[in-house]
Amino acid sequence: MLPIIDGHNDTLLAATSDRAGGEFLREGGDGHLDLARAEDAGLAAGVFAMFVPNEGELDYETLPPAVEHDRARRVVDEQFATLHDWADATDRFRVVGDIAALEACLDGEAVGAIPHIEGAAAVSPDLVNLDSLYENGLRSLGLVWSRPNAFAHGVPFEHGATPDIGPGLTEAGFDLVEACEELGIVVDLAHLNAAGFRDVAGAVDAPLVVSHAGAHAISPSSRNLTDDQLDAVADSGGIVGCTFGTAHLRPDGERGKDASLSTLLDHVEYYADRMGVEHVGLGSDFDGASIPDAVGDVRGLRDVLAGLEARGFDRAEREAIAYGNWRRVLAAWWN
Predict the structure, then answer these.
(1) What is the pLDDT of residues 125-181, one digit of tens each?
(2) Which of 110, 111, 113, 161 is nearest to 137 (CA)?
(3) Against a cut of 0.90, is the pTM above it?
(4) Helix (H, G, I), strand (E, B) or coil at 149
(5) SS3 of residue 222 by DSSP
(6) Quick one: CATH architecture of 4-334?
(7) At 265, phi and psi to the nearest 5?
(8) Can you give the residue ranges of every domain in the chain?
(9) Other C-beta atoms within 10 Å of 46: how many?
(10) Which three-class secondary structure state does DSSP give residue 225?
(11) CA separation for the pair 204, 27 (Å, rounded)
(12) Largest CA distance in the chain
């Protein structure tokens, strides 16, 4: 069974809020992901996101207000503690901080968690706490979620729109990107607007990373990547993790879970045709999005790989998409 590295989940958010799921160490939870099902699926490692939820009801087609830094830091600290508690509770699960640890997970020693913050509001604008976040395990950072912060600007969840909205990185944003590259923290461009994307592409020597997104050519959401952005990722040697979120897979932009597996596979195949297989990965958004019933939960990762085989992707190509491309890009950032 091929091991899998998944580029994004929100299971920590589920564990620290009233959302479905989150009982990660208890088998048979009601979310998309728990440890037992991850083992069944062959999930070697996942990028476990720490995320600060919005206060109040969310209108997906407009940008929510920025999150206050002190609140963001408190929430992220709580989610970090939860992640480390899980790792302390069992040797079947571990926090991954370097390639050696990731390799051990790929060899089947445990399910690994790569700590990620989705939206950098928990980082002080003067970066004074970035080193301490790194020491606590942070190895991947999304500059924004779909809202602004001191560093950059996000995009709304708007169908029939492009990500070309708003200004690029702030001065603090450029400083943060430079510091992340120096420390070895992946800079994730998911949710970032087009101007910010271009700014990061011009500022880093490392491969560009978009942890979870769809192809704008198939589903024209402002959250999805245009062909120009896909070309930039490929030119950098980077990776795009294909989202499983139905609103960013379906051509009509609806969130209905009745989307077929083919709808998801269409995006993976589009990426492979446009960028080359070596720039394609998986970025499910488990426990953070409506995903196709045809996938169901983490165990549906096997169905995704089987679907790729049925579409003519050979074993080497499936290995690259399942884990090889993520391993290569993470090594480029961490080493």
Answers:
(1) 999 999 999 999 999 999 999 999 999 999 999 999 999 999 999 999 999 999 999
(2) 113
(3) yes
(4) coil
(5) coil
(6) Alpha-Beta Barrel (3.20)
(7) -65, -30
(8) 4-334
(9) 28
(10) strand
(11) 41
(12) 50
